Amino acid sequence: MGDTRTRTIDAAERRARLGVRHRLAGSARAGSAEEVAGALVALHGTDPASVFLAVGARLAGNDGPVADVERALYEDRSLVRMHGMRHTVFVLPAALAPAVQASTTDPAAARERATLIRHLAAGSDFDAAWLAETERLVLAELAVRGEATGAELGGAVPALRSTYLYGKGTRQEGVQSVASRVLRLLGMEGRIVRGRPQGTWTSSRFRWARPAGPGAGPPSPLDPAAARAELMLRWLRACGPATEADLKWWTGWKVTDVRGALAAVGALPVTLDEGTGFVLPDDLDPVTERATETGPWAALLPALDPTAMGWQARDWYLDPEHRAALYDRSGNIGPTVWWDGRIVGGWAQRPDGEIVHRLLTDVGAAAGHAIGAEAERLAGWVGDVRVTPRFRTPLERELGA
Question: What is the pTM of this model?
Answer without folding.
Answer: 0.92
